[in-house]
Amino acid sequence: MLRNKKGQGMVEYILIIVLAVIVVIAGVKLFGKNVQKMFSNANETIESEAINQ
Fold it and tell me: What is the pLDDT of residue 9?
């Protein structure tokens, strides 16, 4: 029997992409607030340095 291997490869790529998306979403949920605080602090520091010069 001949099977279509292109379809199998596409399904594997889709599964990898779905897994990557799940990992990214979990990372954002776990670290999102901390990263936001870090960027806010950096932004405030840059603004205060710019005002002081």
Answer: 84
